[in-house]
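A quick aside before the break. I want you to see a complete sequence-to-structure record at least once, exactly as it would be stored in a machine-readable document. Don't worry about memorizing anything.
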Amino acid sequence: MTKIPKSRGDRSTSEKQRTLRRTLRTWRVRRLFRHWKRPEALPWPDVHEDIAYLTRELGRWHPHTLAARSRASSWLSLEGRHTDVLRLAEADVAERTAEFGADDPDTLGCRSSLAWSRRRVGDLDGAVAEARVVAEDSARVLGPDHADTHRRRAGLARFLAENGEAAEGVRLLRDLYAESQAFRWKRRDETRSIRTTLVTALELNGDLQEALDLLDEEIQAERGTIYGVDENLGDHEMKRLQEWRTRLASDVALQDWNRRRKQERRKRRKDAPGR
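That is the input. The structure line, written in tokens, reads:
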């Protein structure tokens, strides 16, 4: 029996059907990654398989593939699987560096994320080392006053403060805070972020009253923040700041009480007979 070859029209129809099936599956897979939390019906092996599918069909650097990989990393973080997040971050930096170079702006962003991933697994020495190099490269590539450079310098200062170098972290953040304030409204959000990081570093350094004063400034700024209709429905940021202030005010009061006790003890020893 002679096999009749497909006509050009048949081949075109077949290709269209394959493209349609691929498009529909791609759409379905993309929808799985729209959730903030991983659906219970979506086990991790299926997550990795779906990301592999998007990578094959759309490409490693397609926006939909990148969005799916980013959401999977967020799911891992929410589930406390920080070691897995670190492994993915290391792979992402290696792939981006090989493809685009270490100085590509997106690669710099991934390298900064890698520093935070190291911090979350408790590797503060590694986080400091990574953040220091990224901050230096960012200043060289983007400029010392670029908003991303400021964010990376703030991250480095925070890691230093958390790693037992609180005084150095505070010094860096004070300088950075002053630089950011010079931009006024153009860097309003960035300045607020640096301010809260400085509050954390001051608290770690024992400068509690200064930390409390800055936190009051941030609370005042939050009161004046205008949100959209569907934004900030639970007022979560203000609640977080108020809870932080309550704890910090208590620490300031305790610090003052301890200081007064020490002064009274020194005075009693000084006034004791025979001295």
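Two observations worth writing down. The chain has a mean pLDDT of 90. Residues 99 and 107 are 10 Å apart (CA to CA). We'll return to this after the break.
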